[in-house]
Amino acid sequence: MQRRVPEFFIVGHHKCGTTALYEMLKRHPQIYMPDIKEPRFLASDMRARFQPARGHSLPETLDDYLSLFSAALPGQRVGEASPSYLFSHTAAANIAEVQPEARSVAILREPATFLRSLHLQLLRSHVETEKDLLKAVSLEGPRGEGRQIPRRSHLPQLLQYSEHVRYVDQLRRYHALFPPERVLVLIYDDFQSDNEGTMRGVLRFLDVDDSHPVEEIRVKTTARTVRSQRLDDALHSLTLGRSPISRAARTTAKALMPRALRHDAFRAARARGVYGDVPPPDESVMNELRRRFKPEVSALSEYLDRDLVALWGYDKLD
């Protein structure tokens, strides 16, 4: 069977509307994208340390990867969305190797709000355990040396927070391999304020029918945070049943409750005890991050020839 190779890639970032863009593109009849939203195969430096208990099985070989696109119809433009490709140091070169004519879409967000949203996501996915964002950022050094990494962190590379907002370095990796007309850089604010207009611009970039009806999917701005790491770890241990105590507790639960009721109880415990609403951002923390990353924003403004310093309020910092 002839394998299809992706022709375009949503390369990132996380928490910047990539899921909404993926879902909107996936519904276009001239586009095929696999059900696995983030194959991550071409980010060879982003291999997980282990398979998370509730994670999807990702392709491990090129044949496995290309099989994701085998259901594409003739004439459909094939693509995939792996937000870690922009963060990765190897993905751009690997994309160029498998598809020299690739088109890539990057979405960039104001650094402080981006890192806060990313930090919350990493807490929920157990990559991170440090609830204090500034302290988590300060741990980049030891974590880069393999120390103080959370036990359940399957992708500790993501804990290098500063690396996520080295926007100019990330874009240069793509521009070094692809002409400018094959790399589309979107700003998160534009996607939020003009969802449909941004989408139609992406369709034109991909050279598909941009007049096709667009079903708008709003970029999510709300989130939940981990309220109790201890309870989450306890429920995780009980679910897996690997220790003698958790195995005994799991056996008892099985004897007392039907499977469906047991699963409902675990879900309720997680929803009510583990997770909670996200409090408003601490503006002193946000401004400290903005002061730290203002040079990156200034460099990006010059690189893209757009005043992001003013758009993101960095001109008003003390």
Low-confidence regions: none
* Name given to the CATH homologous superfamily of the largest domain: P-loop containing nucleotide triphosphate hydrolases
Oligomer state of the chains in this structure: single chain
Helix content: 40-55%
Q: Topology as H/E string?
A: EHEHEHHEHHHHHEHHEHHHEHH
Q: What topology, given as strand order, has the largest sheet?
A: 2-3-1-4-5
Do you know the CATH topology of the largest domain?
Answer: Rossmann fold
How widely separated are the two ends? 61 Å
CATH architecture of the largest domain: 3-Layer(aba) Sandwich
Number of discrete domains: 2
Tell me about the biggest sheet? 5 strands, parallel
Mean pLDDT: 88
Number of discrete helical segments:
16
Description of the structure:
The chain has a 5-stranded parallel sheet, sandwiched between helices. A two-stranded antiparallel sheet has the order 6-7. The protein has 2 domains: 198 residues, P-loop containing nucleotide triphosphate hydrolases (Rossmann fold); 54 residues, no CATH class. The protein has 318 residues and is α/β, with parallel strands linked by helices. 47% of the residues lie in helices and 9% in strands. The model has no long low-confidence stretch (mean pLDDT 88). The protein is built from 16 helices and 7 strands. α5 packs across α15.
List the keywords.
318 residues; alpha/beta; Rossmann fold; 2 domains; 5-stranded parallel sheet; two-stranded antiparallel sheet; globular
